[in-house]
Amino acid sequence: MHPFVLERPRDLSAALSFGAQAGRNDAPVEYIAGGTDMVQLLQEYVRRPDRLVSLAGVLDDGIEIGPQGLRLGAAATMAEVAAHQAVVEQFPLISQALLNSASPQVRNQATMGGNLLQRTRCPYFRDVGYEACNKRAPGSGCAALDGENRWHAVLGTSDDCIAVHPSDLAVALVALDASVELRGTGGDRSVPLSDLHRLPRDTPHLETVLGPGEVITAITVPANAAGLRSHYLKVRDRASFEFAVVSAAVAIETDGARIRQARVALGGVGTKPWRLPNVETALAGADFEPAALRQAAALAADGTRGRGHNDFKIELMQRAIVRAVEIAGARA
Ligand SMILES: Cc1cc2nc3c(=O)[nH]c(=O)nc-3n(C[C@H](O)[C@H](O)[C@H](O)COP(=O)(O)OP(=O)(O)OC[C@H]3O[C@@H](n4cnc5c(N)ncnc54)[C@H](O)[C@@H]3O)c2cc1C
Ligand code: SF4
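^ thats the input. predicted complex w/ flavin-adenine dinucleotide below
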């Protein structure tokens, strides 16, 4: 492990003053929260910051539900949020996505902020034995393009990077129109979660819109997402704990036997959590006939690009949408 200084700031403003930056491999200073992703990256020499700034004890870990909706403090753990009664009852999509993530041990330690900013599981990114990785070493190439790319993205890719964003939670939150509250030395701002992560384009080493020093302080989910019929469907290689091959987050409002409005997002297939407005529009007004659902889900394939081993995801993600809508619709 590259040697680093661990800073334990006494409060948030002291933490911000170090100018740490998430999601950039060239950042000399980074934050650490639960450490479940960061420590792995340090151990593998993927991250070599000179300084780590601990967020332990300086961020809100509250979970609040009010007239405005849900507010999750960035330091709340995955386990706490997944088990919170109001989350389970009013925002079950979030609870389901979390319970389908990682292992109980990891969920007990990992935080909301860290989950959204965890790094990709692309094996070429996580193994410094591979030289070509534009995300880890800008300009070095992308070993996944002609390599083993079964796990990689088919949406939002570029010729410089096809890595999947790995968070299940982010997929559910994007479907529910969530935002993140950010704080930096310049003040506070709120960013829709759909805008937090950047597309790779020709700068895959820049993963988010966070500026130097900025932290995620909270996640907010608007009240109008409460009470929707929803389902988080995750297809993975093993049932115990594993990242998504494909996942679908679906939340619908019904009007008798028809869908009045739908929200649909995909995981495991996009370079960022991927919302599908064209599928949502096609689902609005549809009944639950398989042919109608299938026709709407087919629009998810617009703009996809497979790279060989991952071509199967284009069909699988459509099936996942159909199945998730059917399950959500069958809920009372
Ligand atoms: C065995 C295993 C299985 C897993 N399976 C899944 C899975 O199926 N689905 C899934 O979604 N995830 C999975 N994960 C990933 C796991 O969810 C993440 O490791 C975890 O959520 C990261 O949270 P953390 O608090 O430990 O973050 P850390 O490791 O501390 O930090 C992660 C990143 O976020 C930054 N950061 C943390 N908090 C903030 C903040 N508030 N503001 C700004 N930057 C911040 C850090 O600088 C770092 O870059 C798995 C992990 C493991 C180890
Ligand atoms: S897909 Fe992205 S993260 Fe993976 S090797 Fe290519 S550039 Fe690196």
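The longest strand covers residues 246-255.
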